[in-house]
Design a protein that fits this description.
In chain A, 42% of the residues lie in helices and 40% in strands. Chain A has helices at 3-49, 53-57, 77-90; strands at residues 60-67, 74-75, 91-106, 109-122, 129-141, 147-156.
Chain lengths: 159, 159
């Protein structure tokens, strides 16, 4: 091989490594993302049942946006925190479960889809209320490699 | 430069090109994705107003899933088509507008978020009804490079 051929071969190989590097990162990312979402939903449920707003809000990206049914969007982690603290003063969550139907990811974005069910008890007393619905949630990879809730839209399964 | 140094420099440069290639593709993808979403929402609105289910359903990925409020998920384009044909037999859309607040994309996934407003008229006669809400929609890049609606969750802004 001449010097130029050797250089050309090296360049081609390096480009190939660079490109396969992209694909490999995405593949590894899928399994890590699925695990991160499962852990997030476990903490989401346990913290709500414990009335622990600090732990719950830490699951969110600083620029997170919540799209709750029957109300306008809640923009930014600070406003989402205000909303959850208000909610936890009004009700306690007797039960909260999230079913994860699927996750899919690419680069620093990923989404999760599934259903949820909760039973709430008014803090002021009165009968419990049960809700159930479905969700579509976009997660964003943070600079430390962790995943946080970035966009969260959900609604009821019944009218 | 010796042959090995030259080779090493070429490899490093090629890796750099490969990596910046990933970043460049993502950047180009963002602008293309935003344009694709804008076009999709224009067709989404115009086809619903025209009662054109064929054009509307073509905006969806074959494995698309719709998460409408007050009802269970609708899984797969065939079932989503059945649902829209039923809806268009029940009502006509006097107006339908979608506001696009943001798009973000990575690889073959992207999401759009915003609000919508519609005015519906019962086909059987009777007063018009106005609705307005917000949405979180995940799009998937197709093998031909186009973007289709993949997951779509929406809900009302008012109780």
């Amino acid at each position: 091989m001449k010097r130029n051929e050797l250089l050309a071969a090296g360049v081609l190989m390096a480009v190939a490594i660079g490109l396969s590097g992209c694909a490999t990162m995405a593949k590894t990312g899928s399994a890590a993302f699925q695990t991160a979402v499962e852990a997030t939903w476990r903490t989401y449920c346990s913290s709500l049942k414990a009335g622990d707003a600090d732990t719950w809000i830490a699951l969110w990206d600083e620029n997170g946006i919540q799209l709750p049914p029957g109300a306008p969007m809640v923009v930014g982690r600070k406003n989402i925190e205000k909303a959850i603290r208000g909610a936890l003063q009004a009700v306690s969550f007797v039960d909260f479960t999230i079913d994860l139907a699927e996750t899919e990811t690419a680069g620093n974005l990923g989404f999760a889809r599934g259903t949820y069910a909760a039973t709430m008890k008014p803090q002021a007393g009165g009968p419990e209320a049960a809700i159930n619905g479905k969700y579509l949630t976009v997660f964003k990879k943070q600079s430390d490699g962790s995943w946080k809730i970035y966009r969260d839209c959900f609604n009821s399964n019944t009218p």
